[in-house]
Automatic annotation (TrEMBL):
Keywords, sorted A to Z: ATP-binding, Nucleotide-binding, Transport
Presence of keyword Oxidoreductase: no
Domain ABC transporter: 4-255
Protein name: ABC transporter ATP-binding protein
Length: 259
């Protein structure tokens, strides 16, 4: 079943066509890679998919329990719709602990009101206990449990990236968007992350879309890849189809399509 459809999507910034005439479908349960040279429009696409940017024209449709179109997108509501993301430039609460960062992500799932919280009613404590238990499980999955009381800013870069993913998962998304999850990681960390992404997809029953420049990660775990160049979608297919596509080779290496 299609979890998301993009129809004739355009986004311009003044005279710059950052994303132009995009048509694509994401099937439930896939890991989809979005690749392309710098400035190809990948992050703009993510910002459109998460309501940060409004399309200049075209439409995005999420097929969750009820369909949501891009007209009703609000970035702060995306988690409620079942969409969570990470950012190219890590966005953590740097002066909060690791535990509190992930608890902030979990906050969207809390179903008590202000009064329950103010007067410390039983449902407040029940929700808090449940949140703590689930967040601790997540921290264990990401190997961050032993560091739970450290400030996020003190974590090495690779672990900050993992923490951002853990926080996104705490929102209990159905669709997870990862913007360059391996950026700044060393080869060992990238290898671990590659396995972790596949593992969390199965464990949390997710559909994942990731932007990534590390081709070995993309080719290993993505069932489908979409390739962008100058804002246009120039190819879509399996890793093998993409590797052998002359337009993709040209976009990355330049020169003639036959090279
Ligand atoms: N807010 C903005 N205002 C003006 N131009 C923008 C804005 N955001 C992106 N652009 C332009 O749109 C084009 C696509 O940029 P985008 O960041 O989406 O590419 P990208 O594929 O994510 O690149 P990278 O791999 O370097 O992150 C670029 O020409 C960029 O300069």
């Amino acid at each position: 079943m299609a979890i998301m459809k993009v129809n004739n999507l355009h986004k311009s910034f003044g005279g710059v066509k950052a994303v132009s005439d995009i048509q694509l479908t994401i099937e439930e349960g896939e890991i989809v890679g979005i690749i392309g040279p710098n400035g190809a429009g990948k992050t703009t696409l993510f910002n459109l998919l998460t309501g940060i940017y409004r399309p200049t024209s075209g439409e995005i449709i999420y097929n969750f329990d009820t369909s949501i179109t891009s007209k009703s997108f609000k970035p702060h509501k995306m988690a409620k719709y079942g969409v969570a993301r990470t950012f190219q430039n890590i966005r953590l609460f740097k002066n909060m602990t690791i535990l509190d960062n992930v608890l902030m992500g979990y906050h969207n799932n809390m179903n008590y009101g202000v009064l329950h919280s103010l007067f410390r009613l039983p449902s407040f404590y029940q929700n808090e206990d449940k949140a703590n238990d689930e967040v601790i499980e997540l921290l264990k999955v990401f190997d961050l449990y032993d560091k739970r009381d450290e400030l996020a800013k003190n974590l090495p870069y690779g672990e900050q990236r993992k923490l951002e993913i853990a926080r996104a998962l705490a929102c209990k998304p159905r669709l997870l968007l990862l913007d360059e999850p391996a950026a700044g990681m060393n080869p060992k960390e990238t290898k671990e992350l590659t396995s972790l992404i596949t593992w969390i997809k199965d464990k949390f029953d997710l559909t994942i879309i990731l932007i990534e420049h590390d081709m070995s990660l993309v080719m290993q775990i993505c069932s489908k890849i979409f390739v962008f160049d100058y804002g246009k979608l120039i190819a879509g297919g399996t890793p093998q189809e993409i590797q052998n596509n002359p337009r993709v080779i040209k976009a990355y290496l330049g020169g003639e399509e036959s090279c």
